[in-house]
Amino acid sequence: MPTIGDLIAPRRMGRDFRWLLASSWTSNVGDGVALAAAPLLIASMTSSPILVASGAILQFLPWLVFGLHAGAIADRFDRRRLVMFANAARAIVLAALCVFLITDTANIWIVLAVAFLYGTAEVFVDTAGSTLLPMIVKPADLGIGNARLQAGYLVANQFAGPPLGAFLFAAGTAWPFLVEVLCVTLAIVLVSRMARTPVPPREEHAPVHTDIAQGLRWLWRNPPVRTLVLIILVFNVTWAAPWGVLVLYATEHLHMGAVGYGALTTASAAGGLLATMSFGWLERHISFATLMRVVLSLEVLMHLAFALTTTGWVALVIMVVFGFYAFIWGTISTTVRQRLVPTELQGRIASVNMVGVFGGMVLGQALGGVIAQFWGLTAPWWFAFVGAAITLLLVWKPISHIVSAKPVSDAHPDPVA
Q1: Quick check: 81 and 73 in contact, CB under 8 A?
Q2: What tens digit of pLDDT does each residue of 136-147 get?
């Protein structure tokens, strides 16, 4: 009879996968603690909406500045060690913040600088970390592997971490960040137990911008992966437009209050957990192409439902469904991309994908704010509904080509669609 450990991380996936999973889950606990503690720290130092918003912006701004370079660097060096070094940088930055807090010398500018430095190190952790799974498991196991990694994100980052972070912050401003230092340090130890990953082959002495250009050319000449990245970019624009004003939508339009707003995010995490338990069955019984079309169709309907509802409990139900299909989409899109991209280009293509994610979020949130300012709090949902519906019609047929495409083993020749 299989043990709980075997059910979570099947033996066929190997010991390295278990070390990677343990490291990822541990790191996500620390990130979840900071998810609640960092905004509370900033809000305790300033009442300026601009400075408070800057704390959030500085978390994803490094992706737009360093994302492509992080991908090129991940394709040059031992990716496991790069994760360890970048996590060590995160731990050092957090330790410095703890010193400032304990000595009562911290101010808003120090905290914002820490947010940017921490976010920069996180870019390299996430980029290099996303390339490890395809190197240690078989292509057939990528789906279940990504599902397990995402499950840790949901449980640790979305459920367990934030309440713990808020509790620790109430006990003392430095405590949540000390705990995060411990989590990040333990994550380094765990990932260090993996076997040394091979350094991807590359052209000697080529500058970083040459590697970036090579990755972008490969992506442009590979229609399946290019279309997948464009889908993610566009749907993040439409998704982020209403999400940027979700707090106002929940409190002013639905009259749910602060607790109700918090319940919305918890509801989406609950939906994600339901998806983790069903993903294995879905993968075995339903094709990826069908699942992708269903998920994107639900995205369109989700925007319409939010535009029409005026009731808080209905919004909570919609958010559970959103969390369910969003998890399915994230797992499938990552798995398909990892199967199609050559090992030596995994870092660069993953980084382009993440730049698209955060670029779409920045653009979408800016559009959503303007739309809500002039046409009301439901207008961003209508914008998202129309934009997502048009995009779905355009990508409905190409989805079959994305899923049925064959991987290209050599990064240098022009790929064949």
Answers
A1: no
A2: 888 888 888 888
Where helices occur in 46-78 by DSSP H, the ranges are 49-74
pTM: 0.78
Residue 98 sits at φ, ψ, to 5 deg, of -60, -40
How far apart are the C-alpha atoms of 73 and 407, rounded to whole Å? Answer: 22
Q: Which residues, other chains included, contact 207 with Cβ-Cβ below 8 Å and sequence gap of 6+?
A: none
- The encoded tokens of residue 329 equal 């989409």
Q: Reduce the DSSP state of residue 285 to 3 states and report it.
A: helix
Q: Give dist(CA 215, CA 345) in Å, integer.
A: 7
End-to-end Cα separation, the chain, in angstroms = 45
DSSP annotation string for 319-362: HHHHHHHHHHHHHHHHHHHHHHS-GGGHHHHHHHHHHHHHHHHH
Tokens of 105: 């010398």
Name the residue among 353, 50, 407, 411 with its Cα closest to residue 211. Answer: 411
| Ramachandran category for residue 172: left, alpha or beta (phi over 0 → left; psi -120 to 50 → alpha) | left
CA gap 308, 256 in Å, rounded: 16
